[in-house]
Write a structure and sequence with these properties.
With 390 residues, this protein is mainly alpha-helical. The chain is built from 14 helices and no strands. The chain starts with 15 loop residues before the first helix and ends in a 5-residue tail after the last helix. The mean pLDDT is 82. Belongs to the nonaspanin (TM9SF) (TC 9.A.2) family. InterPro entries: EMP70 (IPR004240), MFS_trans_sf (IPR036259). Keywords: Endosome, Membrane, Signal, Transmembrane, Transmembrane helix.
């Protein structure tokens, strides 16, 4: 005989007892420790930057003669080149648009999961919600991409829109399709059915692509973003840079701190994916995501400031790659996790692991790169709009 018993536990939290991962005390300690360290570093870096910038702007605005201005060095000297369109500006617009699309999908998915709308009782609900939200976020991808494309004085907005709609999802879909063919070859029940693949293609071309074109149309119709300073026709010569300011070294260093903000949580995520455990601690995940956003923004701004002070004005792509390089460390950690935590011996299983981790790392690159780019774009416009120029 069954007895009905009332409970004060909310419906969204009734799975917590069964689905929480093991070693929850270690999880709590590691997350709090990571939060405190990153917040301390972020606050310290922010205070240093604000104090230094305040002194720079005050000193530049106090200059009275042109001779004094010519004696100055630093980021003010490149004001006539800092907004010069970068090489491969169209590709940068494409990746920025895709990053905004992925960022919007991530935020909304986390909010839904945080409030219990996506219960782990339905194992496919989270992935389904992410794919649907990604498709509907196509409108912000087109809008963001076209706004920068017009600012860079691009004219073929339809071509740029098509690349925004096809490049990132096309690469992800090709890798996913090849991996699924390997699963089909093994005659595994884990293969995605043909009907589901057709549904994904329909979401892509039937919903996402048209929304990208709609967003791009409205974005290109708006007035272009105006630079706070004028750009000279003749590019300024960049002085020889120190070894620690070389692009490769600077980019690789910039990705360490964002990865450090998430690598502890990454362990639990990889465990939930590859060791068949449920991940149900979305509150911690949201906090770590906020830490990641702040860290990507601040480390990119700091390195961009040092770059401009060394009179190197090619900051557009480096801003994107600086925080985006954290994806390289993510993939290296995934490789370490494969050899230390997993016992995969079959070749196909190993290919599947690294194939899916390439997709995850690539998506992480687009996400973090866009965060760093927007932070740098706001920072550069702010500091150059604060200084008086003749």
């Amino acid at each position: 005989m069954w007895l009905l018993q009332t409970s004060d536990v909310k419906w969204a939290s009734r799975w917590d007892t069964y689905l929480l991962m093991s070693d929850d005390q270690i999880h709590w300690f590691s997350i709090v420790n990571s939060l405190m360290i990153v917040l301390f570093l972020s606050g310290m870096v922010a205070m240093i930057m604000m104090r230094t910038l305040y002194q720079d702007i005050a000193r530049y605005n106090q200059l009275e003669t042109q001779e004094e201005a010519q004696e100055e060095t630093g980021w003010k000297l490149v004001h006539a080149d800092v907004f010069r369109p970068p090489s491969n500006a169209g590709l940068l617009c494409v990746y920025v648009g895709n990053g905004v699309q992925f960022l919007g999908m991530t935020i909304i998915t986390m909010i839904f999961a945080l409030f219990g709308f996506l219960s782990p009782a339905n194992r496919g609900a989270l992935m389904t919600a992410m794919i649907l939200l990604w498709a509907f976020m196509g409108i912000v991808a087109g809008y963001s991409s076209s706004r920068f494309f017009k600012m860079f004085k691009g004219t073929e907005w339809k071509k740029n829109t098509l690349r925004t709609a096809l490049v990132f999802p096309g690469i992800v879909f090709c890798i996913f399709f090849i991996l699924n063919c390997l699963i089909w070859g093994e005659k595994s029940s884990g293969a995605v059915p043909f009907g589901t693949m057709f549904a994904l293609v329909f979401l892509w071309f039937g919903i996402s692509v048209p929304l990208v074109f709609i967003g791009s149309y409205f974005g290109f119709k708006k007035a272009p973003i105006e630079d706070p300073v004028r750009t000279n026709k003749i590019p300024r010569q960049i002085p020889e840079q120190a070894w620690y300011m070389q692009p490769i070294f600077s980019i690789l260093v910039g990705g360490i701190l964002p990865f450090g903000a998430v690598f502890i949580e990454l362990f639990f995520i990889l465990t939930s994916i590859w060791l068949h455990q449920f991940y149900y601690i979305f509150g911690f995940l949201f906090i770590v995501f906020l830490i990641l956003v702040v860290t990507c923004a601040e480390i990119t701004i700091v390195l961009c400031y040092f770059q401009l002070c060394s009179e190197d004005y090619h900051w557009w792509w480096r801003a994107y790659l600086t925080s985006g390089s954290s994806a390289l460390y993510l993939f290296l950690y995934a490789t370490f996790y494969f050899f230390t935590k997993l016992e995969i011996t079959k070749l196909v299983s190993g290919i599947l692991y690294f194939g899916y981790m390439v997709i995850i790392s690539y998506s992480f690159f687009v996400l973090t790169g866009t965060i760093g780019f927007y932070a740098c774009f706001w920072f550069v416009r702010t500091i150059y709009a604060s200084v008086k120029f003749d």
